[in-house]
Design brief:
With 371 residues, the chain is mostly beta strands. Helices cover 10% and strands 53% of the residues. It contains 3 helices and 30 strands. The longest helix has 27 residues, at 2-28. The radius of gyration is 26 Å and the shape is globular. The two termini are 49 Å apart. Mean pLDDT is 89; it is low at 1-25. This is DUF4374 domain-containing protein.
Length: 371
């Protein structure tokens, strides 16, 4: 009788054990969806692999390579790719800027502005000899970076270009900016023609130094130099906003404008948020790894960052900066230079090819992949 009671009590335990064993077997048989890899673009191979800059304009992707300027238009899910030669030099050192209608670059003492819609049509672009505009011109002082544009072009067709001039009073080469106002007018066969409206020489009160970062945003240029952070309007007004804060990026995210900067003397890193045209609030203190990343606002809702071949989703906030690594299968070993999204597709430009994947697979996190 005692033995029967023992077996009786063991039966529920055995049944429960068998149940768990059965569940485990069923769980083991569940298939995990495969990781969607970044696919190399077959129209950017061989000598066309180096991608310096990408820009998404409406339904068109604009691509600046080592020797070619290219456009990718999406129509009914199909890509129409066109390539054009460009005359710029030092593309491996300078990430020349692109707007929706104009892209620009330099060669020697010459400054080029080319039409996005018809880059090689005669008479569609303009060429400026900076020495003719400013006889004290010595050399361009472009932003030397693979992640920040070398100078800035706004969507209002205004450019801000840094260069050095000979200061005759001190005998030293100092920093100046050339403000270039352009217009885009219709040309033959509905092509665009770039017209020069005005050039203006801007001389900051602070002499010397290098430009570390520059971008345009809603009628202003934001400029980071060794002296600190500036706001320069499209009418040429210079506002020295944050002394000693050497900005290395800025971006718009969910309706807010942010900048990240390193204090020139203290060497600490901070996240600032724009409060108005005249001031910024300190939102968070950052580690120095924040400066290692390149930031890409591919939409108002999605802010990405990259480091070598790694990609991250970034969410700024008060007293924090949340960073989560994304899956980069297919990108390993490729140095990322730029990221853009067109329609439902995300493109990544690297120094060794162009890659893409559907936007629905973009936010696949590394930690989720390992589970």
């Amino acid at each position: 009788m005692k033995q029967l009671i023992t077996i009786k009590h063991l039966l529920p335990v055995l049944c429960l054990s068998l149940l768990f064993s059965s569940c485990k077997k069923e769980l083991d048989e569940v298939e995990v969806d495969p990781i969607v890899a970044w696919e190399v673009h077959d129209k950017f191979l061989y000598s066309q692999r180096y991608i310096a800059n990408l820009y998404g304009a409406n339904d068109k992707l604009l691509v600046l390579g080592m020797n070619l300027f290219s456009t990718i238009t999406l129509e009914a899910g199909q890509e129409d790719v066109k390539h054009y030669m460009h005359p710029f030099n030092n593309v491996s050192h300078n990430k020349h800027p692109i707007s929706s209608r104009i892209f620009g670059g330099t060669n020697g003492r010459f400054l080029y502005f080319k039409s996005v819609n018809n880059p090689v049509t005669s008479g569609s672009g303009i060429l400026l000899d900076i020495g003719d505009i400013d006889p004290q011109f010595r050399d361009f002082r472009l932003v030397l970076s693979n992640s920040s544009e070398s100078f800035a072009i706004s969507e209002n067709h205004v450019a801000l270009v840094p260069y050095t001039y000979l200061n005759e009073q001190t005998g030293r080469h100092s920093l100046r900016y050339l403000l270039v106002k352009l217009a885009v007018e219709p040309n033959y066969f509905e092509d665009d023609k770039i017209v020069l409206k005005e050039t203006r020489i801007l001389t900051p009160a602070e002499e010397g130094g290098y430009v570390r970062y520059m971008r345009s945003h809603q009628g202003n240029f934001f400029v980071g130099t060794d002296w600190g952070f500036y706001r320069i309007t499209e009418n040429g007004e210079i506002h020295f906003q944050m002394p000693d804060q050497v900005a290395f990026t800025s971006f718009e995210h969910k309706g807010e404008l942010y900048t990240m900067a390193r204090h020139g003397r203290k060497q600490n890193h901070s996240l600032f948020r724009s409060m108005s045209d005249h001031g910024w609030s300190l939102d968070a203190q950052l580690g120095n790894t924040a400066e290692w990343l390149s930031y890409h606002a591919i939409s108002n809702e999605i802010l990405l960052a990259s480091y070598n071949s790694q990609i991250f989703e970034v969410e700024p906030g008060i007293d924090k900066l949340n960073v989560r690594e994304l899956d980069n299968t297919g990108l390993e070993g490729h140095a990322i230079t730029s990221i853009a999204m067109i329609g439902d597709k995300v493109y990544i430009g690297t120094q060794s090819g162009m890659f893409s994947k559907a936007a629905e697979h973009l936010l696949t996190y590394k930690e989720e992949e390992k589970k």
